Amino acid sequence: MNIILIGLLRPFSILYGWITSFRNLLFDWGIKSSKSFDLPIINVGNITVGGTGKSPHVEYLIRLLQPYYLLATLSRGYGRKTKGYLLANPHSTAEDLGDEPMQFYQKFGHQISVAVSEKRVLGVSELMTGVHPEVIVLDDAFQHRAIKPSLNIVLIDFQRPIFKDFPFPAGRLRENRTGLKRADIVIVSKCPDNLGKAQQQGFIQKLKPYLNEASPVFFSTIQYGEVTSCIDDWVLQIPKKVVLLSGIAQPQLFENYAKATFEIIENIVYPDHYSYTKADIEKVLAILEKAEIGAQGVLMTEKDMVKIKPLLADFPDKQHLFYYLPIQIGFDANQKKQFDELILSHCQMHVS
């Protein structure tokens, strides 16, 4: 967004910031109510519109907590074609749940319960009366203040720090920067692998005016896994030349990693939470067919895979051309130990 346009939109950003701050005050003063529950509810949210890496952080918490607790995740289910509360089952699709909850279910559904509900209070109540979880991980409910989590984790994208951003529409903030004071833990996500202690401290100093002094700050990185075939029993033949395909909020890290690892024939980018169609698959296959010999596949994100994989049933002789790149998040050894202990001790203290 250019400087002139930002200047024109700043008055609307100020107004938007006032409105969101006033709404927060109504909750802080008890005029609008927040419901708490008698079990640990850990929220992973942000104050930036999209792309801070909530899903891999939710998955990190699942891997950390599932060995010790009966666990459930609850998401709004953005982009789904259903309404109300829905508990994932073997017949669920991304259209039923949304892409990110479907991803959680495909990876962890045999170990945890995955639910969606635009009304989080209703969703938690349904989970408690249905599957009786000991811990619930909320996905993206920092501004959904009708529910009061026992722990609020807020992500900040290292590449788009909030101290350089503004509320919507001049910027990408969902509320004023001071909203960060509600966070119990702050994670600066998508950090460079070589981020040093001095750089971390410099980042924290710039955040300090907006932080709760008691809230620790952690720094996480994106770690890419092995290229994986969309066909479960396919003997993997890693492609060298690929059509890159993504429909995520901030595709730059994915694109940069892919460009450093593969030869990119074409890069196709769709909006976040894009609903793929059979025509989209045909378009990609047409690009592959026109490419020179050696073009070997389509590479996508895991989030895109959960929506594309069901469509591949219509292309049985082409399924082997589709691959995805899973991701996880990581901390350095000292921060990982501190973060894990903090989360586990919180749950231990709050489990009845």
Automatic annotation (TrEMBL):
GO MF entries: lipid-A 4'-kinase activity
Enzyme class: transferase
Pathway: Glycolipid biosynthesis; lipid IV(A) biosynthesis; lipid IV(A) from (3R)-3-hydroxytetradecanoyl-[acyl-carrier-protein] and UDP-N-acetyl-alpha-D-glucosamine: step 6/6
Enzyme Commission numbers on file: 2.7.1.130
InterPro entries: LpxK, P-loop_NTPase
Keywords: ATP-binding, Kinase, Lipid A biosynthesis, Lipid biosynthesis, Lipid metabolism, Nucleotide-binding, Transferase
Pfam families: LpxK
Keyword Zinc assigned: no
SUPFAM superfamilies, alphabetized: P-loop containing nucleoside triphosphate hydrolases
Catalytic activity: a lipid A disaccharide + ATP = a lipid IVA + ADP + H(+)
NCBIfam families: lpxK
Annotated family: Belongs to the LpxK family.
Function: Transfers the gamma-phosphate of ATP to the 4'-position of a tetraacyldisaccharide 1-phosphate intermediate (termed DS-1-P) to form tetraacyldisaccharide 1,4'-bis-phosphate (lipid IVA).
Name of the featured protein: Tetraacyldisaccharide 4'-kinase
Organism: Flectobacillus rivi
